[in-house]
Design brief:
71 residues; alpha+beta; two-stranded parallel ribbon; 51% helix; flat
Length: 71
């Protein structure tokens, strides 16, 4: 697999809070839509427990995929 093909299989998680002042949520949602495996979620400040669960879920999927890919 070439370098340009490999990055396309990497998940991209965009977590954004509605109170984030520096980057509008629309930027993150657009980036997630453009990323081949992008996901966009609001909430890290508003619902930290839910965001932690989401991040753990994504990391578990990545770990499972990586394990399968290298087995």
């Amino acid at each position: 697999m070439g370098r340009s093909a490999g990055w396309r299989s990497v998940p991209a998680l965009f977590v954004h809070g509605r109170l984030d002042a520096e980057i509008p949520p629309g930027v993150s949602s657009t980036l997630a839509a453009l990323a081949p495996n992008g996901e966009f979620h609001l909430a890290h400040q508003e619902q930290p427990a839910a965001v932690n669960a989401l991040i753990r879920s994504v990391l578990a999927r990545v770990a499972t995929s990586a394990t399968a890919a290298f087995s």
